[in-house]
Write a structure and sequence with these properties.
Blueprint lengths: L4 E5 L4 E19 L13 E4 L2 E5 L8 E18 L9 E6 L13
Antiparallel strand pairs: 1-2, 2-5, 2-6, 3-4, 3-5
């Protein structure tokens, strides 16, 4: 989508982040882990929306997909952070947003 930028870095911990196009109510962040090698690197990765931490991913052998529930936290940035000298390896990150629900049901019968 236009206006979405992702970047990654290291130094004091390793991180990946995406700047969202608008302020978004994030319900969950899904991460697809690499399975060919080094899949244990996902262990301890923190999931953040803005300055609010949504969860910490826990490595499970053979598990490919991880989800952190964020409960509609508002933010313009989602980041994954690994503390210390560890390396962060990811295949895919999905940011799920809260969709507005209708407040009224209209019956369109003739």
């Amino acid at each position: 989508s236009s206006g979405i930028n992702a970047e990654y870095g290291g130094g004091q911990g390793t991180w990946w982040r995406v700047q969202l196009a608008t302020d978004t109510a994030v319900t969950a962040v899904g991460v697809v882990n690499r399975m060919d090698a080094f899949s244990e690197r996902i262990d301890g990765v923190q999931v953040w929306v803005g300055e609010e931490q949504c969860g910490v991913l826990k490595y499970e052998e053979g598990r490919k997909e991880y989800t952190s529930l964020c409960g509609g936290v508002q933010g313009t940035e989602v980041s994954l952070r690994k503390q210390g000298d560890g390396v962060l390896t990811l295949c895919e990150v999905m940011v799920l947003e809260l969709q507005e629900q209708p407040t009224e049901v209209i019956d369109e019968q003739d």
